[in-house]
Amino acid sequence: MAHIRVFKHYVHLPFIMLGLIDFTVLMASFYLSAFFLFFTHIGLFVEYWDQVLYSAIFYTLLIQLIMIATGVYESQIEEGLSGMMLRSILSIIIAIAMLSFFVYISGDTLWYFTKGQLSLASVLAVFSIGIFRAIFFLFAHEGLFKRRVLVLGAGHRARNLATDLTAPLDRKGFDIVGYIPMPDEEVKVGRQHLLNVPNNIQQYVEANNIEEIVVAVDDRRKTLPLDDLLNCKMVGINVIDGSTFYERESKKVPLEMIQPSWMIFSDGFNVGRLNAVIRRTFDIIASLLLLAVSWPLMLLTILCIKLEEGIRAPVIYSQERVGLNGRSFFVHKFRSMRTDAEKKGEAIWAQKNDTRVTKVGEFIRKVRIDELPQIFNVLVGDMSFVGPRPERPVFVNQLSENIPYYSERHRVKPGITGWAQLCFAYADSEEDSREKLQYDLYYIKNQSLLLDILILIQTVEVVLFKKGSR
């Protein structure tokens, strides 16, 4: 599966193709419904087609934005086409409600957003999208978008690729044809996957339609077939480092495969002053907008906490966390646990079905309302809107000793939401924290304003479908 790197973030090409297909289908559905309801004569329609254009584009882009927010395109991996269509229908219903409300408050009659128009366009869109997606995935399952990959190496690094990137639910856009062991290399890959290429790698590659060679050798100081690799590259075969291949396919940085030199010389891990100013401006604007929208909800939350636990019950819970460059600060949240949750004074991981959580706390945690007071942390500059979640000092000390590169997550400001929160469930153990760190490192390496905006949009899915909440 080919990739396009947009502002340092890897995007699967089939997802882009699917998005373009959906865009075309939604535009066509809107135009077709407008023809039947407002024109009915082909000559009249051809003459005034441009009057429908802005309404059609607005309708289409709004639906696709909501689709991204509800995780439509990623849902196909775990839920299949049926799950993808259910989320698409939900997205279209939300879009219809938003457009109807827009017309109601604006009173503007220039838009083609009548009840009949929106209903007919949406019915046509659902059926058309379902048909075209079924055709698209039929070709996808036949391997049209999969790249044939050859791995050079069969040791520890190659085994990581074999085990981590071949799970059924992973976005496999590739087929690993086999592994070529290096001389004197301890073989860690199953014997059935090994290839015997005694002579020329280029000849094997060309004879077997290999599109990419992944170099996953444990010790590069030993002899590499440099001439063969260069010959393959000169005839158009992509040659890529194993760590970069892993990062591209999994959207995380492999802790077991990287070295400090890779972090220094790789493309990423750099934040300029201009980017810092842009991010800070974005944080302030986004925080003020969210505060303007959410303050009634925050007042209602305060009232509910008081009603459940009494007028004297504290509403805000402040806790010390580790932020940028290892400096400590206090993060603010709506209190969701009992006041004696840590009466022994010991820090305790939050668990699933935690008995310390109050009834109000259980709800506000699931829909992430408890995080809203962190808006003020962003406004004062302790946090960003997007970044790694801040952790408590006692856990940071423990995890830094046991997990390599853990302290690197403090190179950027912590965030209310982040890439790891989207891609991984709640971390309640050291092993979970190790896995989550790999996603945090991917974000730190590839951070950009576009990736921040994408994370914010997709955070809607986390709230709606309660992903990763405790």
TrEMBL record:
InterPro entries: Bact_transf, EPS_sugar_tfrase, Sugar_tfrase_EpsB_2. Keywords: Membrane, Transferase, Transmembrane, Transmembrane helix. It is found in: Membrane. GO terms for cellular component: membrane. The keyword Ion transport does not apply. Signal peptide: none annotated. It is a multi-pass membrane protein. Residues 279-464 form the Bacterial sugar transferase domain. The chain crosses the membrane at residues 12-40, 52-73, 85-106, 118-140. GO terms for molecular function: undecaprenyl-phosphate glucose phosphotransferase activity. Pfam families: Bac_transf, CoA_binding_3. GO terms for biological process: colanic acid biosynthetic process. Belongs to the bacterial sugar transferase family. This is TIGR03013 family PEP-CTERM/XrtA system glycosyltransferase. It comes from Alkalimarinus sediminis.
